[in-house]
Design goal:
The protein is α+β, with helices and mostly antiparallel strands. The chain is 27% helix and 19% strand. Strand 4 and strand 5 (110-119) form a beta hairpin. Helix 3 (156-168) packs antiparallel against helix 4. It starts with 7 loop residues before the first helix and ends with a helix. Residues 54-64 have a biased composition (Basic and acidic residues).
Length: 223
């Protein structure tokens, strides 16, 4: 029988009460975070998006057919869900080691574009469970930082569905509990394939650590 989980807000409050603010600040700065003017945190400025975004820009048209290769064959397209493992949501220092999840697309094993979801001005440190403006950063995340990767072959039609989802959610509100970077990556995968990737949560907030564990277990079973 399933046990009823405590409300998210009390969980967040208990976690915050156990933190040393000075130590937490030092750790976030060591991990590359910096303070924003409104008192939040951010990892850095969003790079300008050029043509290499492969149709993920807001004004890009995805209805047009993919460009044909010289040999007349469609390229092999791969969706990759990438995760940088850190702490679980259940860990007391989750907010200092939150990790990250994002997606990338490859054609014939050549990188095309990546998309990761972030809080635009950083998370509200005093109320991390509240929604803040969010943004999709294209070609921002380094795939070398991933601790595990789920690779999924997709068709050109599925690729367009994934790109359309990204374009439709470029400025979705960010919420640590209900729509964070992992929710974004999961939903891109679902838009393309019709199902959620391994490691998705139904009762707890989605987070990079659990997604990492699910993907790692899936990859091990495939070997």
């Amino acid at each position: 029988m399933l046990q009823r989980l405590p409300a998210a807000a009390p969980v967040v409050q208990r976690v915050l009460e156990g933190l040393d603010p000075a130590a937490a600040t030092r750790r976030m700065e060591q991990q590359g975070w910096r303070r924003t003017a409104d008192g939040g945190w951010t990892r850095g400025p969003v790079p300008e998006v050029g043509e290499s975004a492969d149709g993920l820009r807001p004004d890009a048209r995805t209805e047009e057919p993919e460009q044909e290769q010289a040999a007349g064959e469609d390229p092999a397209i791969t969706l990759r869900v990438l995760v940088k493992k850190s702490a679980s949501f259940r860990d007391a220092d989750y907010f200092q080691r939150v990790g990250h999840s994002w997606v990338a697309f490859y054609k014939d094993d050549k990188f095309q574009a990546s998309a990761g979801f972030y809080p635009k001005g950083g998370i509200n440190e005093d109320a991390p469970h509240r929604s803040v403006p969010g943004e999709v950063r294209l070609n921002y995340d380094d795939p070398n930082n991933a601790t595990t990767v789920l690779s999924v072959p997709i068709t050109a039609k599925q690729y367009k569905k994934a790109k359309n989802y990204i374009k439709d959610n470029l400025n979705h509100d960010y919420n640590l509990l209900t729509y964070n970077c992992t929710d974004f990556a999961i939903n891109v995968h679902k838009a393309a394939t019709g199902h959620r990737p391994p490691g998705s949560n139904l009762l707890m907030p989605n987070n990079p650590n659990d997604l990492h564990s699910g993907i790692k277990k899936h990859n091990t079973n495939q070997d």
